[in-house]
C-alpha cells in the first residue's frame, strides 16, 4: 500500500519544517522518531509524513522538497511590532489565514476585471508626504462620512460604529473579512498578540482582515480604520500595536494619526474635553468624552496627553486602570448562531459576487466551497442567510 512506502526527507528539510511548524503539538514519541529519521536510522512512511504534517500544521508537500523555501507571507515583512520581534517566525495560523485571504483576493480581483470594472482610484492615492487632513478628507469623501458621522448615526458604541464603517468600506469595494479562528476550526484560535489585523493591497480588490479574537470592540474598530489608511497609502501591513504604544515608523505614525482623526476629530475632541468644566477629575472627564466618541478610554487619554491636557503620570495611571477593568469585565465568548457568525466573517458584497458567479457557471461549486470554507450543505444555507 502507498501509505507504507518509505520517504527520504533530507535533514535540512526536517530542520526547516520543525522551525516553521507548531512543534508544541508533537508528542515525545513522535519527536524521537523524527530525530531518528533525521540521522538516517529508518525512514518515515507516507502515513508517518501525513501524521507529522498534520501535527506541525505544515503542508504535506513540503516534505518532498529537496531544499527549504521561504513561505513567509509578504505582509509579515510589514508588521508594526517592535524590533525585538523582528526575527520571529509567523505561526502557521497566521500563514494559513493570509493564504486564505490572498486566495479570496485573487478571485475577487479577477471577478472585477472580468466584469470590466476600473481600478479603484483611492488605492495608493496618498503618500508619506500627504498630510493627515488630506488623507482623512479623501477617506471621508470615499466613505461618505461627515466629520461628526458618529453623532449623525448615534454611533457612540464601538460595535455600532464598526458595523457602520464596515458597510461603508464594503460599499466602496473594499473587502472586509473577520474571523477569530482558522476557517471553521475552533481549535485553531488566532492570537491577537501576534496580529490584530492586516491589509492586502490591490487596485481592484483591496482587502482588510480583522482578528475577531482581539478585544474589545474599540480595538477592532481602530484596527479597521488603521488598515483603511494603509489602503490609501498603498502599503500592505500586519498590524499589532499592543506591544508598541507609540508608533515606531513614519508610516505607522501617519496611519495612527489619520485613524484617530476619523474616530475622534481633534477640534471636536478639544471642545468635548472642555465641556465638563473645571469640576470634573480626569477619570470622570474621560468617561464623558468616551460617551461621545466610539473609542477606548486609553485612546482618549492618549489624545489628551498629546494636547497636554493630562500629565504622563495621569496617562499611565489611566491606561493601567482601563486595562485592569477590561481584563475583569471582558465577557466570555458565546457560541452564537452558526450562520450569523459565519456571515459576519465574510464581506457581504464578496459573498454575493461568489453566489452570482456560481449561478452563472463562471465559478464551480467546489471552488466556492473552498473559498468560503463551506460544503454542499452549508453553502446554500449561508446564501439564504445572506439574502435575509
From TrEMBL:
Top-level taxon in the UniProt lineage: Bacteria
InterPro entries: IrrE_HExxH, Rad_response_metalloprotease
Residue ranges of every copy of the IrrE N-terminal-like domain listed in the record: 194-300
Coiled coil: none
Residues making up the signal peptide according to the UniProt record: none
Pfam families: Peptidase_M78
Protein name per its UniProtKB record: ImmA/IrrE family metallo-endopeptidase
Organism of this sequence: Bifidobacterium tibiigranuli
Higher taxonomy: Bacteria, Bacillati, Actinomycetota, Actinomycetes, Bifidobacteriales
